Amino acid sequence: MGSIVVDVMLKPEILDPQGQAVAGALPRLGFDGFTDVRQGKRFVLTVDGDVTDEHLAAAREAAEKLLSNPVIEDVVAVHVLDEQAAAAEGSGEAEDGEQ
Amino acid sequence: MKVGVVTFPGSLDDRDAARAVRECGGEAVPLWHGDADLKGVDAVILPGGFSYGDYLRCGAIARFAPVMDALVPAAQGGLPVLGICNGFQVLTESHLLPGALIRNDHRKFNCVDQRLVVENASTAWTSDFEAGQEITIVLKNGEGGFVADEKTLDVLEGEGRVVFRYVPDADGRNPNGSYRHIAGITNERGNVVGLMPHPEHAVEAGYGPSLDGRGFFTSIIKQTLESAATA
């Protein structure tokens, strides 16, 4: 079972009130080194079997047609999810063997 | 004179819109999101609410409902369509109108009696107003900030396609951060109009801030009767 990740961000010139709300909350928790926050969206599209070029092409089309609104948003990445790398990143250590 | 009112999952103001049509002398025809059938109506209203829970983006999923497969080409062919609030969001997501609606710049939900200036009184939905007229109708939204790139805004202004503008407050601010105080716009042909405020909540004495909303519905009823007479 493979997955494709689609990342969508508001265009830089579009105001991001949600990001601003987060930016306002960070200093209250002591995180005062961040000068700006932009909030985006991540979609994980799962397919039967391995991800093929056709799956990727369909994901790119879906990203432009539905997952993003090109008036206000950019599709910044469409790529195959590397499960092991994601797991290693998530747990902070390499895991092996598990699917 | 039949005005269709579409109900999506999560529409809230479909019944109010239908009632407003009847109050102003038209026949309201319920249209269902799952049917690609406009039932021979003379005009269509996309009502306010939270279609599909505002998931993904406001109006983004409703835009691909079966009824839209019939509505989009009909609107491109000249069928009068009014999008109110969530309906306006559906129209921008459908690319029947340019720009987009984003979260209010102050991040609070609005619910106010809002003063607007009618900028264009020659659309299918505003002919009973006069250009420059001020009206007061209800505004209630969380994501009503109208945005578009500078070029698009200039085109809208240059072609007289800004239909309504918010009257800014003493600090020069409008209620949701809309660029150039834009509350409503139209397409090139003037048959498709979208706005964030709610005319359907201002049609009956004792309910709402005024009767100013009636002009939307009397305009479309009159225009449809006239075009039927000349057809």
Automatic annotation (TrEMBL), chain A:
Its EC number is 6.3.5.3. Its main location: cytoplasm. GO terms for cellular component: cytoplasm. It comes from the Bacteria. It catalyses: N(2)-formyl-N(1)-(5-phospho-beta-D-ribosyl)glycinamide + L-glutamine + ATP + H2O = 2-formamido-N(1)-(5-O-phospho-beta-D-ribosyl)acetamidine + L-glutamate + ADP + phosphate + H(+). GO terms for molecular function: ATP binding; phosphoribosylformylglycinamidine synthase activity. Keywords: ATP-binding, Cytoplasm, Ligase, Nucleotide-binding, Purine biosynthesis. NCBIfam families: phosphoribosylformylglycinamidine synthase subunit PurS, PRK05974.1. Part of the phosphoribosylformylglycinamidine synthase complex involved in the purines biosynthetic pathway. Catalyzes the ATP-dependent conversion of formylglycinamide ribonucleotide (FGAR) and glutamine to yield formylglycinamidine ribonucleotide (FGAM) and glutamate. The FGAM synthase complex is composed of three subunits. PurQ produces an ammonia molecule by converting glutamine to glutamate. PurL transfers the ammonia molecule to FGAR to form FGAM in an ATP-dependent manner. This is Phosphoribosylformylglycinamidine synthase subunit PurS. It comes from Terrabacter aerolatus. The gene is purS.
From TrEMBL, chain B:
Gene3D superfamilies: 3.40.50.880. It catalyses: L-glutamine + H2O = L-glutamate + NH4(+); N(2)-formyl-N(1)-(5-phospho-beta-D-ribosyl)glycinamide + L-glutamine + ATP + H2O = 2-formamido-N(1)-(5-O-phospho-beta-D-ribosyl)acetamidine + L-glutamate + ADP + phosphate + H(+). The keyword Nucleus does not apply. It is found in: Cytoplasm. NCBIfam families: FGAM_synth_I (TIGR01737), PRK03619.1 (NF002957). Part of the phosphoribosylformylglycinamidine synthase complex involved in the purines biosynthetic pathway. Catalyzes the ATP-dependent conversion of formylglycinamide ribonucleotide (FGAR) and glutamine to yield formylglycinamidine ribonucleotide (FGAM) and glutamate. The FGAM synthase complex is composed of three subunits. PurQ produces an ammonia molecule by converting glutamine to glutamate. PurL transfers the ammonia molecule to FGAR to form FGAM in an ATP-dependent manner. Part of the FGAM synthase complex composed of 1 PurL, 1 PurQ and 2 PurS subunits. This is Phosphoribosylformylglycinamidine synthase subunit PurQ. It comes from Terrabacter aerolatus. The gene is purQ.
